[in-house]
Design a protein that fits this description.
heterodimer; A: 214 residues; alpha/beta; 6 strands; B: 477 residues; alpha+beta; 5-stranded mixed sheet
């Protein structure tokens, strides 16, 4: 898998490059800001771009803008953005059109390297990766309290993991249950919340998020 | 400490407590160009004396008196009539507003004497600063107008300046006339050959006498003429004196008071300090985020990588050193992630990054993280300054925290709107009410913060609820 990294802190940028290289990625480029990111991707499109949202010059959301723009121009490009704080709006903007090959993590997640690398791999393969913290906030802020209250605690756990973009197998591993059990829970959730049928993992992320934000 | 000096030109003691309304006395009077200055620096006294009748400043003074006297008369008469009717009608409801209008009118009238003084006397006096109206409504207006100190000072000016200018104009006219009469006496005496009868019945060839001394010979006539000529050099100083006196009155009574100038200065510097501190905090937050936070994340990442590498090899599983190293790495990793979280909380309390995208976004984030379900509605036509936005944000943060902790409410609503040039923020909760402000508590701190920008924080919290906290922050300060 070929990856391009955009991160303004040199220490972190080199750390990420080292980590991903160690885990089998080919680091195509490591750049410090959004302008360089655009140039690097135009020059050589990778499979996935790992982008810090907040970069020079304005230190607001240049990374996010660049990521969305590059995804529109290069539909095969997967993008994983990360930020210091949870902003549910960022997730919404990223997922606005397509939810395949998109990820949004908190920077803290990088400190748990295996999870981070797994998320990058998932996104590069066309799936979705939302930080659990983002999902927690979305669920807490959701006005669909009546619907969510109707779920059992286990079902809520499954819902959260679904929203993160995990596959049924991954959820089963996480919760230490059988994949069959997970499938049953998922089915119940879809029925109780009246979610539309969605085939792939990333589509159901969209469905869940739409539900939570409505 | 002695009271501020009342003599023109003498500087008052710089740190004396100045009673409200004390006139501003310039420590250095604006000498250049002013009709009151006796001489330009460096010019010999004799030259000044001889130039006086034709000096520009003399004619400015003449013109000033000629214009100011009738204007002052008109103003005085208007003031007297209006005050009379106002006082007369004070028993009815019409009189009081009329008096208020008189005070206001006097303040506005001040434009004219200030302009005159500026153009003709070179006295640059600024208009006194207006107090911005705190509340709207008829009675607040009435109160503010009747109590307008600058208006009353302007009224004092009209009353005092009128005799000064009128008397000055009269004196100058009479004196000039007399000087001219003396000067031209020989010509008159020669051409018209007047006669006077003295007390002895003897006819004298004169038109002027000083007691027994009749001006009836050429030497005496020329003497009188010389006196008239000398007088012509003295009269200008009368004019300039009266003009200078009136100019001082303008400066004393129609300019800003020292207190109001100090207030203006303090307001400007405070606004600067507030904006400056907001910018500084933003910079600190950015430095912490971009530098320190990133470095901590890198540290934690590398610790995790080391941990995994150590866990990976099965061959080293029994080595006690390896086991110990793994423990230490585990702990180190936990410390690092803990540090990341703590630092993030600190920076968030310094400057919420969400604010960069606007108050509505930041408040939405606050609401979503609030312990109590909160609804946010923001209706702002124009984006406020960063300092105001920050204060508004922290008000909502603190208020929502209070709601979550103490009110037992099931829901809260936050509304932000601009109204009459102020940002009005309202946090409403349906909790049990009965909230009070604890000295030294978070809400007291908020009040202090709000007051630094001349804002207000009030809370209505009857026991049993609901509670509404209202924050008003001026916009466009």
């Amino acid at each position: 898998m070929r990856v391009t990294i955009a991160e303004d802190s040199a220490v972190l940028r080199e750390g990420l490059a080292g980590l991903l290289a160690e885990r089998g990625f080919e680091v195509v480029a490591a750049v410090p800001d959004a302008v360089a990111l655009r140039a690097a991707v135009e020059a050589d499109v990778p499979d996935v771009a790992v982008v810090d949202i907040r970069m020079p010059p304005t230190h607001t959301d240049e990374g996010l803008r660049a990521a969305i723009e590059l995804r529109q121009r290069f539909p095969t490009l997967a993008v994983l953005v990360f930020s210091q704080y949870v902003e549910t709006r960022y997730a919404a903007e990223l997922l606005a059109e397509r939810s395949d090959g998109v990820g949004y993590l908190l920077k803290d997640r990088v400190a748990h390297v295996s999870e981070f690398v797994a998320a990058v791999e998932r996104v590069a393969a066309g799936g979705t990766a939302l930080d659990p913290e983002v999902v927690t906030q979305l669920m807490a802020a959701s006005r669909r309290t009546d619907g969510l209250d109707a779920l059992t605690p286990r079902e809520r756990e499954v819902l959260a993991l679904m929203a993160e973009g995990r596959s049924n197998t991954a959820i089963a591993t996480e919760l230490v249950v059988t994949p069959r059990a997970v499938e049953k829970h998922v089915g119940n959730i879809f029925t109780k919340l009246d979610l539309p049928e969605s085939g792939t993992d990333h589509r159901r992320v969209l469905a869940v998020l739409r539900y939570l934000r409505s | 400490m002695a009271a501020p000096s009342a003599f023109p030109g003498a500087p008052g003691p710089p740190d004396a407590p100045v009673p409200t309304g004390a006139p501003v006395l310039p420590a250095r009077s604006p000498a250049t160009g002013s009709a009151s200055a006796p001489a330009a620096p460096g010019r010999p006294l004799t030259a000044t004396l001889f130039r006086a009748p034709v000096d520009r400043r003399t004619w400015s003074a003449y013109l000033y008196l000629a214009v100011a006297a009738p204007i002052g008369l008109a103003a005085f008469v208007t003031l007297a009539v209006a005050s009379f009717f106002g006082a007369l009608l004070a028993v009815t409801l019409v009189g009081i507003p009329l008096l208020a209008l008189v005070v206001l009118g006097a303040r506005e009238y001040g434009v004219l004497p200030r302009a005159l003084a500026r153009e003709l006397l070179g006295e640059h006096v600024e208009a006194p600063r207006r107090r911005s109206a705190r509340k709207v409504g008829f009675f607040p207006w009435l109160q503010a107008s009747l109590g307008d100190l600058d208006g009353w000072r302007a009224i004092a000016f009209v009353v005092v300046s009128f005799p000064v200018t009128v008397v000055g104009a009269w004196v100058v006219t009479v004196a000039t006339g007399m000087a001219l009469a003396l000067l031209t006496y020989p010509a008159y005496w020669y051409l018209f050959d007047p006669t006077q009868t003295d007390e002895n019945g003897v006819a004298r060839d004169s038109a002027m006498q000083f007691g027994e001394f009749y001006i009836d010979t050429w030497p005496r006539a020329l003497l009188v003429s010389a006196a008239g000529l000398a007088a012509m050099f003295v009269v200008p100083w009368f004019a300039r004196g009266f003009a200078m006196l009136d100019g001082l009155l303008v400066r004393w009574l129609l300019g800003p008071t020292r207190i109001s100038e100090r207030v203006e200065d303090l307001e400007a510097t405070r606004a600067h300090a507030v904006d400056d501190s907001a910018a500084t905090l933003r910079r600190i937050e950015r430095d912490l985020h971009d530098g320190t936070q990133a470095r901590l994340v890198a540290l934690a990442m590398q610790l995790d990588m080391a941990k995994e590498r150590l866990t990976a090899g099965d061959a080293t599983a029994d080595d006690p050193d390896v086991a110990r190293a793994r423990e230490l790495l585990d702990e180190a990793h936990r410390n690092a992630t803990g540090a990341i979280t703590e630092l993030r909380d600190v920076t968030r309390s310094i400057h919420p990054p969400a604010l960069d995208r606007g108050l509505d976004e930041a408040l939405a984030t606050l609401a979503s993280r609030s312990g109590v379900p909160a609804r946010v509605e923001t209706r702002l036509a124009v984006r406020p300054s960063p300092a105001i936005e920050t204060i508004a944000y922290y008000c909502v943060a603190e208020l929502l925290t209070n709601v979550a902790k103490h009110s037992g409410a099931s829901g809260a609503s936050v509304t932000v709107a601009d109204r009459d040039g102020a940002l009005v923020l309202r946090v409403h909760d349906d909790g049990r009410g009965g909230a009070t402000v604890v000295p030294g508590g978070g809400l007291a701190g908020l009040q202090d913060r709000v007051r630094t920008v001349d804002g207000r924080l009030t809370r209505a919290s009857p026991p049993g609820g609901p509670t509404v906290a209202t924050v008003e922050l001026p916009l466009g300060a």
